[in-house]
Amino acid sequence: MMEEPKEQPAKAAPSAEEELARVRSAFVWRVTTEILTQLLEALVCDTVLNELEKESILEKNLARADKARSFIDTVRKKGDKACKITIKHLQIKDPSLFSQLRLNSDPSAQQDALQKCQPKLKSKLKKKFQRVFEGIAIAGNPTLLNQIYTELYITEGGTAEVNDEHEVRQIETASRKPDRPETTIRQEDIFKDTPGRHEPIKSVLTKGVAGIGKTVLTQKYSLDWVEDKANQDIQFIFPFTFRELNVLKEEKFSLVGLVHHFFTETKEAGICSFEDFQVVFIFDGLDECRLPLDFHKTVTDVTMPTTVDVLLTSLIRGNLLPSAHVWITTRPAAADQIPPEYVHRVTEVRGFTDPQKEEYFRNRFREKEQASRIISHIKTSRSLHIMCHIPVFCWITTTVLERVLKTREGGQLPKTLTEMYIHFLVVQAKVKKVKYNRGRATDPHWSPESKKMIESLGKLAFDQLQKGNLIFYESDLTECGIDIRAASVYSGVFTQIFKEESGLYQDKVFCFIHLSVQEFLAALHVHLTFINSGLNLLEEQQTTSKKSETRESAEKHFYQNAVDKALQSPNGHLDLFLRFLLGLSLQTNQTLLRGLLTQTGSCSQSNQETVQYIKKKLSKNLSAEKSINLFHCLNELNDRSLVEEIQQSLRSGSLSTGKLSPAQWSALVFILLSSEEDLDVFDLKKYSASEKALLRLLPVVKASNKALTCQHF
């Protein structure tokens, strides 16, 4: 009978004395005289060496290398305990050299440091992330994230290529997508491998339009780790925002130094290396990055000081701390800043699906009847329903409808985007009046102070929209007549509109809570300027309307010029701005802003001329996206005649595609793309068998999974 092989004893870790012997030549080659002197002084303090031994090492040897050899040999003769103390001091005095020598730091000491640091870090992150201010940054009523968090629709796949189309267009495209098979992913599984994948997922890029929930997604991921609900194999999560990092543009840090700077708990615990830990770095808001990301510039040493942009590129490439996981969030327009070869997984936050929208409103409105009324109202307005893909728009909607339902029982709810945003502005003005100025709810809400504030914010919104900026700094505010000392009042009063953020620094960063709010205020500024002074801010050479020109003629030119400007934009960057500007031309909407507007403009004849001008444009050969936005503009002007005409023909079965004008074809495409019916299978034969019909209905065919055509196609 064969003897079973005896189990080999586990190989013991090398002793500290053996470790110093192993690195002796490398230490002698690399250590500086300055570090050597510091080590000697530390060992004298710890009574490992005496003053005589220290002087002997420094003075008897003239060359630096001889001093270093003498130092190592003297310490090794003192025994293993002395060697351990020396290694510990080297880790603190010169972390870079310690890392290069790959010295075996005491595993039990590392575990002690982890146990000391992790609870403090988790406590800090819990305080930071457990409460959220929906839509706002530093004021208002905080809500527990776990109470209001509605699961977001996140898909895997796609590319990190740039998409500079207006984000509302992207939302509309997403809202049309049928329930086709897609790989969905939960936030806690963002780094988990998929079956059949051979390489681990180290870097993830998550795309999503503004307000879709990217930041809240990363906060929930961190909070679940903090509360021991998920990803307990991770030992550290370090969340950063690009806004915080922008402030450090001119400074230099090592990776360890950067972590110590933001998360002081790691420094206090004496952690000078992260190679032996599972670490996740989160970088939120790549689209706000003001650092020059050059992926040809990298470092490999976690203790070498360099600029923050080089640290980032090195970390993303995997040259620096290759064991780390990196998660970056961005708006689609900035996705191409990171070369695709350095991204292992691309995900997209699609916001809320239709059932998730309903879940959100039922969470916010506890009364079933009220929640049902709001949900059915939003479904009747396609533009509102589409925008509710964005969580922050759902929040704006609840803010408005909550107030409207309280003050107008049984009254009409806002149906257009312009109405919704006017109500939102009015709600904030009323809140400011009662909450901050100790006024009564019945007092006029447009005080001279709040009017000036809106004018300043409107100018800021328009000026920065022209430049393509969504993030502003102190100088931008000063240019618009906003006193930086009063900025806290602005953010404290109109918190729901304007955010002020300051992290570890005094430098403050400002932005509007959502791009759509910036575009609404920009449109309001252009409208107010024209009504009050006759100045058209959209013209390159800004001129006031001529004295000989009638008011009706000036208005006609103003709105037609705005339509032309929006159509000239290749990526639709003025689409939403145009909707708001035209919506503000209606007398009914101007009435809602009574008090802010000192005089009103736009007679019904002028509005009708704008409607006819848009219909004329629809008869041209426009892209589907441009046509769709013009129909949304007609909706803001309360004109649904073209759409209703085609809908009537569809209902009666009398639609003759052979006789449709280009504008009517556009209306048909708009109706089909806006339909709540699933576009999984589109039967083209129902409409026409001609090649012309196929070309006209191509956007609908593209949005469908399957199109049924005649055989000769």
From TrEMBL:
Q: Where is the CARD domain?
A: 12-105
All copies of domain NACHT, residue ranges: 202-334
The record's annotation in PROSITE patterns points to: CARD, NACHT
This protein's UniProt keywords: ATP-binding, Cell membrane, Cytoplasm, Immunity, Innate immunity, Leucine-rich repeat, Lipoprotein, Membrane, Nucleotide-binding, Palmitate, Repeat
Q: Does the keyword Membrane apply?
A: yes
The family database entries (Pfam families) matched by this protein are listed as:
CARD, FISNA, NACHT, NLRC4_HD2, WHD_NOD2
Q: Which SMART domains match?
A: CARD, FISNA
Location, primary (coarse class): membrane
Q: Which SUPFAM superfamilies match?
A: DEATH domain (SSF47986)
- What are the subcellular locations of this protein? Cell membrane; Cytoplasm
**GO cellular component annotations, sorted alphabetically?**
cytoplasm; plasma membrane
Q: InterPro entries, from UniProt?
A: CARD, DEATH-like_dom_sf, LRR_dom_sf, NACHT-assoc, NACHT_NTPase, NLR, NLRP_HD2, NOD1/2_WH
Q: Which GO terms describe its biological process?
A: innate immune response; regulation of apoptotic process
Q: Give the residue ranges for region: Disordered.
A: 169-196
Instruction: Tell me a Gene Ontology molecular-function term this record carries.
Output: ATP binding
Supply the name of the protein.
Answer: NACHT domain-containing protein
Give the source species: Astatotilapia calliptera (Eastern happy)
